[in-house]
Predict the structure.
Amino acid sequence: NVEPRSVPVFPWHSLVPFLAPTQSD
Amino acid sequence: PVSLPPFFMRGSIIQLADGELKRVEDLKTEDFIQSAEISSELKIDSSTVERIDSGQTPNAVVIQFSVGELKAQVCVEVLGEYPFFVFGQGWSSCCPDRTTQLFELSCAKLCVGDVCVSLTLRGMR
């Protein structure tokens, strides 16, 4: 028996560095 | 050794904010912009590369960014092969040959002056 392999799906924002919060007023 | 995230591997499936699935190598600047527009928490900021220096460990680089309209100075230390997405250009890293070798991801050389896609929180006070 071959178990189906699930393909991981990554959210778009995981590819983008989170750099600094914008300090708005 | 520092591990690199798996999602930069060529063929990785990325889900955009509207649910659309794309391969990491097929992502365009508009995909990030449109996903951020939908997001209630995150917004796209542009981060300009100001300096690139050697890091504390072999293969590491310290990249200084100027982030957003406020030009906040932020330094990150990453492996040279870590890819960043440059507006209008696509994936770029300090060691594009290594990035291509490791991830099979086509990559340009990240240079001072490049403007990278980055995220900030919306409505941060």
In short: Chain A has a mean pLDDT of 78. The two ends of chain A are 60 Å apart (CA to CA). Chain A is about 0% helix and 10% strand.
